[in-house]
Write a structure and sequence with these properties.
Length: 150
Amino acid sequence: MAKVLVAYASLTGNTEEIAELIAEGIRQAGGEAVLKSVTDCNADEINNYEAVLLGAYTWGDGELPDEFLDFYEEMDELDLAGFKAAAFGSGDTGYSIYCGAVDLIVEKLKERGAEIVQESLKIEYGPNAAEKDSCRNFGRQFLETCAAVS
Ligand SMILES: Cc1cc2nc3c(=O)[nH]c(=O)nc-3n(C[C@H](O)[C@H](O)[C@H](O)COP(=O)(O)O)c2cc1C
């Protein structure tokens, strides 16, 4: 059974809700999901898992939120070769760089050698009913991809 870390940064709860739904999807598919705020864990904890999903809302002008900065910097010490990964987050299409933090996370995961196994999940604000299903499917799909390739 694949054990997946789902780590996220959320200020007003939208990304947290997305992360919870993704974790639900992973569990529905028979995987183990450990849900953590990035403020409660260090990046090297990724080594305790088989795969990782990282999420954040976007701040400033397409930037990472402050809560994610330490974790992002700690990732520089990691060798993620062989790790399956993907990213998710909440944003607002009214800003010129929609969900830019999600793209920055994918960049960092790739730089450290992780394999991005599915396209990022970007949700505007909190998920509506249809998007809640998309979040669960994102988790389920991720688990199934990890199980298929491991
Ligand atoms: C000051 C400020 C700057 C923001 N900048 C961006 C941005 O550049 N791109 C984007 O997609 N969303 C941007 N947002 C929108 C947030 O990412 C969005 O409200 C998100 O749903 C918050 O997620 P959370 O509830 O997980 O904290 C910004 C919001 C604020 C208040």
